Fold this protein.
Amino acid sequence: MAVPTSARYVVIGAGIHGLSTAWHLASSLAAQGRFDAGDVVVVDKNGVGAGASGIACGVVRNNYFQPAMRELMAHSVSVWESDPKAFCYNPVGYMQIAPPVMADDVSKIYEEQKAIGYESVLVEGEDDCRSYMQAMFSDWQAGNIAVVLHEKRGGYANNVGSLRGLEAKARAAGVKIYTGTAVKSFAMDGNAVKAVETEAGTIACEQVVIAAGPWVRHFWQMLGLPDTVEVKGRDGNVYERPMWTYWCLQEGTVEVPPDFFLTDAGEMPPVLHVDTDAPLYDDSDGSLVTDALWGIYYKPDLYFGGVQGGAMPYVVDRPLDEVAVDPYGPASPDFVVGDEFARMWTSGLAHCHKRFEGKRASFKKEASGGLGCFTPDSFPVFDVFAENAYVIADSNHGYKMIGVGALVAKEVLGQDQALLEPFRFSRYAEGRLHPVSHSPYPWS
Ligand SMILES: Cc1cc2nc3c(=O)[nH]c(=O)nc-3n(C[C@H](O)[C@H](O)[C@H](O)COP(=O)(O)OP(=O)(O)OC[C@H]3O[C@@H](n4cnc5c(N)ncnc54)[C@H](O)[C@@H]3O)c2cc1C
């Protein structure tokens, strides 16, 4: 499809961030009486939801050890709650279930959630945690759990459904979306982007928003930015670090009937996230899977056709140029889960609930999982480069961040947002790093 020769704002990527930003840009301009047809354009080389947003597990939570992440998530949860139907959002809540080594971290999260008015319940001590879990699921059997944080807000949304909802809102606000339109390069005017060069033509623009998910490094290169960055560590020394690291996200589904995983009261359970250092044994043959800290998350999900979830991701240990982001997601020959994941995850489910014992054979045999592109500290970078190129690099935290586009739109229109301030690129040089938790995940 031919693209326009100019647009004030060109948004690259029709995932959660690109669509949310475009929608909010167009509606904010309209509210100010400054919107003209064609002002906001989205281009995507494939289609809506062709990237990470379209395969995300869809978990929406507040549970983060980093205060700045929590405040940002609380804002995004309000956006999810603003139109659950359009966003296919299920507000079932979320639970972090954790071992002694994480107890202090989780209690701190609870205290800080109280301070920002984010409703949650904290249960402490092994006996009380077991009772709390067994009141919900009588077959709960995981031991060595020292703390349960039950967030009453949050839950999960359907990946493709929510993007369709966002797309509809963006189109209704006057956004033009061009799919099958790959961006090849930028035309520069001094240090600023003056046009976006696509396979379907060149679009002159005033500002560009790059919301390219796992492809962010390609755009970083187009902007002439380096693959390494200097990070001032907590010890005051400066370290050269890779700007980008690819991780492979591991997820899958156990095919079980819709009522297989309800609470004892017959209700949809919250999304469960269990971390533990209890040894994990293979549910089929009793062999040791791991005696290191491990974690799984899971939820009954009608869209996926069973109980869906995942486990810790792993770093893709290859030179960056040898990591093929395309074909993406289930189409990738490399970055989909295999038997090892199925063994670990289904054994983890059986470790937690008796009802999952012997369910390995029901693990859905389809390609799942996919790549994420992480920043040096595994937290997002939201910042402007090359004078007028706004980069949304969410470090794979981002499906739940549906509200970031609203904040980015405000910044693009000239209003700095305090919630985004902790995520500036300059934090690396200045050593303004986010605190690090004891979680086995790079994103908690
Ligand atoms: C398996 C998996 C599960 C996940 N689960 C969760 C979860 O439960 N909760 C959560 O919060 N997050 C989750 N995430 C992370 C989340 O999906 C991402 O952080 C988020 O979707 C990124 O959104 P985005 O809009 O930046 O990018 P994307 O959704 O990846 O969109 C980027 C778009 O850019 C387009 N594009 C790329 N290159 C070009 C080009 N040259 N020209 C034009 N267009 C281009 C792509 O086609 C794509 O559509 C998960 C990620 C994975 C991989």
Notes: The chain has a mean pLDDT of 96. The first helix runs from residue 16 to 31. Residues 12-18, 43-46, 50-53, 55-59, 182-183, 211-215, 249, 251, 369-370, 372, 392, 394, 396-400 surround flavin-adenine dinucleotide (CB under 6 Å).
